[in-house]
Structure formats: C-alpha cells, structure tokens
Design goal:
globular, 28% strand, 5 helices, Nucleotidyltransferase, domain 5, 229 residues, 2 domains
Amino acid sequence: MAFLLHLETSTEQCSVALSENQTVLSHRVELGEGFSHAAKLHVFIDEVLQDAGIVPSQLDAISVSEGPGSFTGLRIGSVAAKGLCFALDIPLITLPTLAVLAFPFLENAKVISLLDARRDEVYTATYTLEGKECTPAQAHILTANSFSEYIQETCCFVGTGAKKTEEILPPNPTWTFVQTHPTATAMITLANTAFVNQQFTDHYAFVPTYIKPVRITPSKKDALGRMVD
C-alpha cells in the first residue's frame, strides 16, 4: 500500500490527485484564464488529503510533472513538490509532461503530444501504443510539412497545441486531434510504476525541463521604482 500525491502545474490548468497504489482517492482541477497555481495548489493539496482522511506524514512519495511547459507553472509545482519531499523525508518522482499528456490516449493509435509554446511553436514528443517514447521532447515550429513522416499512420495528436496544429497541417483521415491539458490523475499509473521500481529523482538537484531558456524582460524601472529610458 502506497499513498502518492501527484502535482500537475505545467499549463494554465492546476490539478492535484491523491492515490493509493493505482486507485484515485481524491482529486482537484481548475482551469482559469490566468495562472492561479500559487493560490490554488496548496489549497488543493490540503483538500485531497482531507477528503481521504490522510495526513501528510502518511504520504510515501510525491510525483510532479517535470515539463516542458509554462515556466511559471513548472516552477510553482517543482518548488511545492521539493518542499514536501524535504519536509516529509520522502522520495520525489518526476514525470515528463508530454508522457503524462499521452498516457490516457495510448489505446488505438500512435500518440503525438503537443504543448502550446506560443505562435506557431509547440513542445512535442511521440509515443508508441505501448507508451515508449519514439521521438524525444523538443521544441518544434509548425509548418504544413510537420509530422509528414507519420502521414500513412493512425495518429492521435493531443494537448494544448492540438488545435493550432490541426489548423496548420493538411487534412488526413487517419489523424485525430484532441485539445486537452495534462492532469494529475493521468500521472497515477506512471508514478506508481516508478515508485514500485524505485525510480526516484534527487529532490535537492531537480530542476524542471524547460527545453527553451527562460525569457527575461529587463525592467523599465530603476532600483527606486522610477521609469528609465
């Protein structure tokens, strides 16, 4: 018996789930126009624990979606996961966000995970029916020729970048597109497998997978808060 807490904050959607082995005990999810993660994440954690009558000291591990995704969302999730692991002295499990996206759709087709990276760019990785990664996570600029190597295959494109990908690619009757967000409940089986196999991440050294460097815009104010040219 293992109680695992799962945190998914890589997009505008914030979700938390609590599981016992592979059974969902409780979960919370919220998709807002902006990022409410800082305000909602710890509230959701408290609520799912209370729902199940579990106290933090009973947790056996924390799993967190490691990216790629939103810089802000990933930072909030990783800091929360690392803090809990440190405080409770329990292991950390990190799961690739694109694998979490693909997992619920691995039944009938090859899955191409797509996270919106703004403009015509996506973060993407491709998975077989067995969930094996066959192309690694990468940033990709969409064109009409994108994913042409799969033109003869049955593929399911899933994620926050699915809609804009469908709009750019030529029609293909063997391709389907599902606009969706990664969720904490989709992490449960993957995290439980990692827990059983003791595939843990050093929570001291862990940093999210951003793929692209963080873009920092220089402040237009000086140290005293005055506007500068």
